[in-house]
Write a structure and sequence with these properties.
heterodimer, A: alpha/beta, Rossmann fold, 7 helices, B: about 400 residues, six-stranded mixed β-barrel
Chain lengths: ~230, ~400
């Protein structure tokens, strides 16, 4: 079964008087356990496509399926439930909750899901260890480096074993060493947890990690390449 | 439940992100709550004084009269049951604090002046705890028994009549045959009252002495009954009504003095309006604080929505934040109100504005009265209206589109 299926989706924005086609009749299927990179120059439509897959943005037309469930016609609340149950997000700007510690940030999704305190604690500690943040669990975001914060964001995205992780420019604010470590982590999680990863990037080093590279330009898919991951 | 824990934890931590703003807001709520409770306690104390003083002058929480007495308080409208029978009826109950009286309009004359007064014929032993006079003697003595041949008058009346303890005055009224009934009395004591009007118009003589002067045998004009709490006299009124089998008029104090009675209702309404007005002023600060808090956290709110938090939970988080802010303010407000009222319970001397207070029927010493129901009302007003005030910013926060919020700079 496909983890993600987009059927002929379109999305148009108005920028002043100008109409921008962010997605122009895009159709893709992403298999479960896939590791896909969406590559495009700025304004190419990769973030819009990622947001449409994540239910953060609703396309003007077309259909979006996640785990076989159509999501483009769901209500705001149902979309929230879907994201909570099935999707993990990693954002370019880390986007951690500043008043919570690293562990509490990781636990946040599980807490909203209603997981018990003991189970939350065990899972969050294990995942923080897995992403190499053992000993930093009680630090707040402001007390951590960019790389450490992004690792917390990754831990938060995968801790509840989502079917799908969507990462938007996850290495944009990281140095090359930290970027490599993060992508190694993604690869490991993809292989060990069979989690589907869709990563939007224009970083060629990141693209090298993907099993499949989808290139976009002006809201359209211009190339779809199966490749051997690094 | 777990979600509520999450929401509460986030709300509490968010509250203290901007310490200064939160402390200022808590200070404002504290001040507002203190003002609500403190001013209400002063008002309650003032009304309590007015009613208590008024009841001591009436006096009694429940009174029994001839049905026509209130329209024509003359010697013709006496209670149709003898004083001995009244005593027998009350002794068959567990009502302990009651007194029968003769009460007639009269004229008092000294060698220099005359004045119209209300003449009370009383049994001093029964008046203890009901009437104020025995406690407030400024000169001489109070009446010794119901056959005492002296009279007790107010200090102000003594000034007006240019008389004093030991001097004789003449009291003049009417007997049941509409003949003049008069007699010379020696002034045996002067009393002070919280209100000048009482000192100027009330004169006390022995009940038996007055019954003889008025030629009314064993009859009385009024029975006053004192309960435990002037706010709740319904049961007492019913019990006294049963004693008189519906032949006499038995009324609670609030109906006997409708002005005094209406004070309670008016003050209850005033207290609520006062609290709401204070809160309205507070609510601007509260809403502003919440709007700022939401505005500063648009991205975080978007993030939480992106991670799967439902709009209802976002709304709950802002509302809980508001409630927590209010609870902290309420805690300090209540404590400070208690701490500031408690030392003043012995009385606040307001004699500097005594004349104005006298005109309102209030004595010159105010005793703040902190009532549980007023404290609860103040807390409820703050919580309920605070909750309502927080709904607007909370609703706005919950309506954000996650992707717009998360990309907001």
């Amino acid at each position: 079964m496909n983890a993600v299926q987009c059927v002929d989706i379109c999305k148009t924005y108005l920028q002043g008087d100008q109409e921008i086609k962010a997605l122009d009749h895009v159709s893709i299927d992403i298999a479960e356990g896939g590791f896909v990179c969406l590559s495009a120059p700025s304004g190419g439509g990769k973030t819009t496509l990622l947001n449409a897959i994540g239910g953060l943005d609703i396309p003007d037309s077309g259909e979006v399926y996640v785990g076989g469930e159509r999501i483009d016609n769901l209500s705001k609340g149902d979309l929230a439930d879907l994201r909570l149950a099935k999707i993990g997000f990693v954002f370019q700007a880390y986007n951690l909750i500043p008043v919570l510690t690293a562990r509490e940030n990781v636990e946040f999704v599980m807490q909203v899901q209603g997981v018990s305190a003991n189970a939350r604690r065990q899972k969050s500690m294990a995942i923080l260890q897995e992403v190499g943040l053992e000993g930093l669990e009680d630090r707040r975001p402001a007390e951590m480096s960019g790389g450490q914060q992004q690792r917390v964001a990754v831990a938060r995205a995968i801790v509840s074993n989502p079917e799908l992780v969507l990462a938007d420019e996850p290495t944009a604010n990281l140095d090359s060493r930290t970027s490599s470590e993060l992508m190694d982590l993604f690869t490991e999680l993809n292989e060990t947890h069979a989690t589907t990863f869709v990563v939007a990037t224009h970083d060629k080093r990141v693209m090298a990690y993907a099993k499949r590279l989808i290139k976009m330009l002006d809201g359209r898919i211009v190339d779809d390449i199966q490749q051997k991951a690094a | 439940m777990r979600l509520l824990q999450t929401v509460s934890k986030l709300a509490w931590r968010n509250l203290w992100r901007n310490h200064r703003r939160t402390i200022i807001m808590v200070g404002a709520i504290t001040l507002g709550v203190w003002a609500m409770i403190f001013m209400t306690a002063l008002i309650r104390g003032m009304v309590d004084n007015m009613i208590t003083d008024g009841l001591r002058a009436l006096p009694g929480h429940v009174q029994v009269h001839h049905p026509a007495f209130r329209d024509d308080p003359s010697v013709e409208n006496l209670i149709g049951v003898s004083d001995a029978e009244i005593r027998r009826r009350f002794e068959s109950t567990d009502i302990e604090s009651w007194a029968s009286r003769v009460k007639v309009p009269a004229v008092i004359t000294s060698e220099r002046e005359s004045r119209g007064i209300v003449l009370f014929g009383i049994d001093p032993a029964r008046e203890v705890g009901i009437s104020f006079v025995a406690d407030d003697m400024s000169d001489g003595r109070f009446l010794e028994d119901e056959s005492d041949s002296g009279i007790v008058i107010g200090a102000k009346l003594a000034d007006t009549l240019e008389t004093e303890v030991g001097k004789r005055v003449v009291l003049m009224s009417q007997d049941p045959d509409n003949e003049v009934a008069d007699r010379g009395f020696r002034v045996v004591g002067l009393f002070d009252a919280s209100l000048d009007a009482f000192e100027e118009t009330m004169v006390f003589a022995g009940k038996e002495t007055l019954q003889r002067m008025l030629k009314i045998g064993d009859a009385v004009s009024e029975v006053a009954v004192q309960g435990d709490d002037y706010r709740d006299v319904t049961a007492l009124t019913d019990e006294v009504r049963q004693l008189f089998s519906g032949n006499e008029e038995v009324l609670p104090w609030a109906e006997l003095d409708s002005y005094l009675g209406s004070m309670l209702d008016v003050m209850d309404g005033f207290v609520l309006v006062w609290m709401v007005v204070i809160f309205m002023a507070l609510s601007f600060g509260l809403v502003n604080t919440l709007v700022m808090a939401v505005f500063e956290r648009v991205r975080e709110i978007g993030l939480m929505m992106a991670l799967g938090m439902r709009p209802g939970s976002i709304l709950a988080q802002i509302v809980v934040e508001s409630i927590l802010l209010l609870l902290v303010g309420l805690l300090f407000g209540n404590l400070i109100a208690y701490a500031s009222i408690e030392p003043l319970k012995t009385g606040i001397d307001v004699s500097i504005v005594a004349e104005g207070m006298e005109m309102m029927g209030v004595s010159t010493v105010l005793y703040p009265k902190m009532m549980l129901k007023d404290v609860l009302l103040a807390n409820a007003v703050v919580l309920v209206l605070g909750f309502l005030a927080s709904l607007s910013p909370a609703w706005r926060a919950s309506r954000y589109e996650p992707i717009e919020a998360i990309t907001k700079v």
